[in-house]
Amino acid sequence: MVKYADLLKGIKYVxxxxxxxxxxxxxxxxxxxxxxxxxxxxxxxxVASDRHAPWKSYIYRKPSEYSVEIDFKGVGETDxxxxxxxxxxxxxxxxxxxxxxxxxxxxxxYNFRVDFANRRVRAAAGARPPRYRSRSxxxxxxxxxxxxxxxxxxxxxxxxxxFITQ
Length: 166
Prior knowledge:
Layout: H1 4-9, H2 11-14, E1 26-27, E2 33-35, E3 40-48, H3 56-59, E4 65-73, H4 83-87, E5 100-105, H5 108-120, H6 149-160
Antiparallel strand pairs: 1-3, 2-3, 3-4, 4-5
């Protein structure tokens, strides 16, 4: 199983320009969903494609936002909660260091560079996108599980707003 720190290690091999402190705008975060039977909590949001130049999406005809799904596995019903929050039936708060993570983003970088390697180590959530091959027939990434900047931004947003813990 894969932790968040394991995915961050792969950034320097797959996409060195991605910053661990990525802070893109999180648009339309949905309410977290907790599946008690499988002990999975799911967070879904739309994340802006570019923080400083949203006009680029109109010029280059790429989407202005991407859908990011983050699933934490092995989350107990009272993880990260104090007694008052347990009595008030708050959702559990998963931990980046303790819980396994599964990620999915609709950006091209994720689909072409990240998804296949993440699926090999069971760190990819959602439906499988078509496998990409370069014009020379090579795969862009076969063995390094990692994460895209949109998912990093969403994880940072979840941390800053108290939905998850370190």
